[in-house]
Design a protein that fits this description.
By secondary structure, this protein is mostly helical. The protein has 2 domains: 33 residues, no CATH class; 55 residues. Helices cover 58% and strands 12% of the residues. It has a 3-stranded antiparallel beta sheet with strand order 1-2-3. The longest helix is centred in the middle third of the chain and has 52 residues. It is rod-shaped, with a radius of gyration of 38 Å.
């Protein structure tokens, strides 16, 4: 099978029955691909991918922690708002705020 090189590519002519068919079928191969068959990832490629994933996770973890803290602060503010709203509604219905009771004795302090 004759091979010729042009501008970094390897031209491979496939065997054909007639000259016309031979001219019609010319396969262009890239040099990096034609030298070896790639069946799997190399160890270096795998380590590079794992390193990239580790860096991305290291970047994202503080962001996720900050988002979790903001969510907890928002939930706390919402709970306080609900308690204040409930006390305001009680005061509107009964004319005074609820009396605090001591848990041990059941009397007002």
């Amino acid at each position: 099978m004759p091979k010729t090189r042009r501008r970094g590519f390897t031209l491979v002519e496939l065997p054909a029955v007639s000259r016309r068919q031979r001219e019609a079928f010319t396969l262009v191969e890239l040099p990096a691909v034609s030298r070896r068959q790639r069946a799997a990832f190399t160890l270096v490629e795998l380590l590079v991918v794992v390193g990239i994933i580790v860096v991305l996770v290291a970047i994202l973890l503080p962001v996720l922690g900050a988002a979790r803290e903001r969510a907890a602060a928002t939930q706390c503010a919402s709970n306080i708002r609900q308690v204040i709203l409930a006390m305001s509604m009680y005061e509107a219905d009964h004319g005074s705020y609820p009396i605090a009771h001591d848990k041990c004795y059941g009397t007002a302090p």
